[in-house]
Amino acid sequence: MYEPQEMPQYAHFMTSGIASVVVETPDGAIAEVNLLGHEALVESMHLLGPTPMLTRCFMQVEGTALCMPFKELRQIFLQCEPLRRWVLQFVQNQAALTSQIAACNRLHSAEERMARWLLMVQDRVESKGLPLTQEFLGQMLGARRSTVALAASALQAGGLIKYRRGIVEILDRENLALAACDCYPLLKGLLRSLYSAA
Ligand SMILES: [Zn+2]
Q1: End-to-end CA separation in angstroms for the chain
Q2: Of 54, 112, 187, 188, which residue is most buried, by most CB within 10 angstroms?
Q3: Same fold, 10-105 and 108-194
Q4: Domain chopping of the chain, boundaries
Q5: How far is the CA of 23 from the centre of ligand 1 (A)?
Q6: In sequence order, what E strands does the chain have?
């Protein structure tokens, strides 16, 4: 969707699927700092000013978006007050979400974060089975493959998920929410507040 340090060519109003916003270090390690679904204008941060974004964004679960040239949206953003108000509300929401995820990445266990992450993905795609490789899950959680395998097998042993051939299926949503860290209800509240904002 966009690359670090570059102004995007297009703006995407997502209508389905999941995009991940990640930071990649020079040695190639990746950690996810945000996750976007049908609520998102992917390039909203870029609209605010000239600071180059250090993140990269890519589709992770196939989806659709309405799309327009970024420069045109930037022009409308400057002229159209209702659109600007909406974008600012969305960006504020994303700032709250990103800081919670930053704390979560540092403070909570891989198992808790995996549960939190799977629930966030499922809140945005209505499918039961999520196509996710262990390598990819590791990137999303900023964890080693062995840590991811351990966390996945703990969740699987509890009957919360089924993980087979790169597909994660959520079997018990209620208990998966109990296995997730306290960040999940907060992050879910942030997603809900976007839709209730006037
Ligand atoms: Zn957390």
Answers
A1: 28
A2: 187
A3: no
A4: 10-105, 108-194
A5: 18
A6: 10-14, 18-24, 30-36, 56-61, 65-69, 129-131, 161-164, 167-170
CATH number corresponding to 10-105: 2.60.120.10
According to the CATH classification, is domain 108-194 in 2.60.40.2890? no
Find the 143 Cα to ligand 1 centroid distance in Å.
14
The one-digit pLDDT tens for each residue of the chain (198 residues) are 999 999 999 999 999 999 999 999 999 888 889 999 998 999 999 999 999 999 999 998 889 999 999 999 999 999 999 999 999 999 999 999 999 999 998 999 999 999 999 999 998 887 778 888 777 788 788 888 888 889 999 999 999 999 888 889 999 999 999 999 999 999 999 999 988 865
Q: Tell me the CA–centroid distance for residue 61 and ligand 1, in Å.
A: 22
Q: Is the dihedral of CA 104, 192, 61, 121 positive or negative?
A: positive
CA distances from 32 to 55, 102, 149, 170 (A): 9, 9, 18, 21
Which value, to the nearest 10 degrees, does the dihedral of the CA atoms of residues 193, 13, 34, 51 take? Answer: -110
- Supply the pTM of this predicted model: 0.88
| Residues, beta carbon < 5 Å, ion ligand 1 | 104, 108, 181, 183
How many angstroms separate the alpha carbon of residue 183 from the centre of ligand 1? 4
